[in-house]
Amino acid sequence: MSAVGEAGGAAAAIDLHVDVDTAEGRRVGLERALRAAIRGGRLAPGAPLPSTRGLAADLGFARGTVTAAYDQLVAEGFLITRRGAGTRVADMPGPAVPAAAHGGPETAPPRFDLRPGLPDVSAFPTAAWLRSTRRVLTTAAPLAVHGVGDPQGRLELRTALAEHLGRTRGVLTTPDRIVITSGFYQSIGLLAGVLAEAGVRVVGMEDPGHNVYRDVIRRAGPAVVPLPVDAEGARFERLADPALGAVVLTPAHQYPTGVPLRPGRRHRVCAWARASGALIVEDDYDGEFRYDRQPVGALQGMAPEHVAYCGSVSKTLGPGLRLAWLALPAHLVEPVVRAKHRADWHPRGWASWCWRIC
């Protein structure tokens, strides 16, 4: 027999699921069920229990049966009762936690974290984000904010992004060609899957580069070949390989060397994509960060029908927002949106609105 406490009064409204075996009597069965729940950790120290009246009503027992079971468990030290505070689980000692395998004192965290790819999240515009959140949650229709959204992403955000990217990065796109994702990891995964379905067998990636994204592409099916990097960016001898169907580049600021892709090589890779019908995946992971000169414009502006442009707020605001985008050639929009729908149906709702008006 099982029950979930509810109804009548605060104590009676406490949910409590218990499976009571009444083979040896209802009181004994209830005592055993509560002991097992306490010993197993389902009822933590200090957890409140329903009133005797409420639990008796849920179980279909006499109130005296539940009272007798509670009294027995109080006597054994499993429960405590206080006037006006109801019945709660006693603070019983748990099993000893084994000591950590490694010895020695814990080291203090470093004062400065210089690992690559981590922004200074202490600079997050909290006040502006709170204002945006309040405005969204108080002015937008509830269904628009909390309901199921478009797998391509909210039109309002895509419209704002098309304007922002054109103005700040020289990206030539329109809202209908932008797809909102949860980060570059998802962006490259969607593109890798779509490329594999289209028959692409080999993808070139900068070397050195980020191993995680190489693995994402390999898992989708294509083989990954290295594009060595020198002082002028990625080298393109492998473009002569007819099996090469796509390249992944960080042209504004190569990761991890930091060199930009020189103009001559930009023209060369764009000409290759036009002639072969291949795809350039542009990871503009920190293209807006420049302290010594103006940011280098996006490669996408040179060949918008052959470049899939990837961006995110992970470096400008913080990776925890999980907000990124793809600006795609026209022929890739439908298959990428279809893949996005299969992956997670639709992106975050109100957070996208907040970024738009933040």
TrEMBL record:
Alphabetically ordered keywords of this record: DNA-binding, Pyridoxal phosphate, Transcription, Transcription regulation
GO molecular function: DNA binding; DNA-binding transcription factor activity; pyridoxal phosphate binding
Family matches, as InterPro entries: Aminotransferase_I/II_large, HTH_trans_reg/aminotransferase, PyrdxlP-dep_Trfase, PyrdxlP-dep_Trfase_major, Tscrpt_reg_HTH_GntR, WH-like_DNA-bd_sf, WH_DNA-bd_sf
Keyword Transcription in annotation: yes
Annotated ranges, domain HTH gntR-type: 24-92
Stored Gene3D superfamilies: Type I PLP-dependent aspartate aminotransferase-like (Major domain), Winged helix-like DNA-binding domain superfamily/Winged helix DNA-binding domain
Keyword DNA-binding listed: yes
CDD domains registered for this protein in UniProt: AAT_like, WHTH_GntR
Family (UniProt): In the C-terminal section; belongs to the class-I pyridoxal-phosphate-dependent aminotransferase family.
PANTHER family: HTH-TYPE TRANSCRIPTIONAL REGULATORY PROTEIN GABR
UniProt protein name: GntR family transcriptional regulator
Organism: Embleya hyalina
